[in-house]
Amino acid sequence: MQYLMYSRWGRCEREPTLARMQEVLSELDSEDEEHAGVSLIHESEWSLAAYPGGLLA
Questions:
Q1: Which end of the chain is more exposed for a tag (fewer CB within 10 A), N or C?
Q2: Which residues lie closer than 8 Å to 17 by C-beta, 6 or more apart?
Q3: What pLDDT, on a 0 to 100 scale, did the predictor assign at position 47?
Q4: Per-residue pLDDT tens over the stretch 5-50
Q5: Per-position DSSP letters for the chain, written without gaps between them
Q6: How many Å apart are CA 9 and CA 39, to the nearest integer?
Q7: What are the structural domain ranges in the chain?
């Protein structure tokens, strides 16, 4: 099963490694109201988005 990850700056990556996912999550440590979150989207169409402060949606 495949999944995509979107970084805070809009970069899309297929099948990122765990280390890369951690790097992208660390992007949330800086303030940026325009680029609020990062997301992971599975090919079955479920998704998970992370935002500063620990909010997951």
A1: N
A2: none
A3: 95
A4: 999 988 999 999 999 999 999 989 887 777 889 999 999 989 999 9
A5: --EEEE-TTS-EEES--HHHHHHHHHGGGS--SSS--EEEEETTS-EEEE-GGG-B-
A6: 11
A7: 3-54
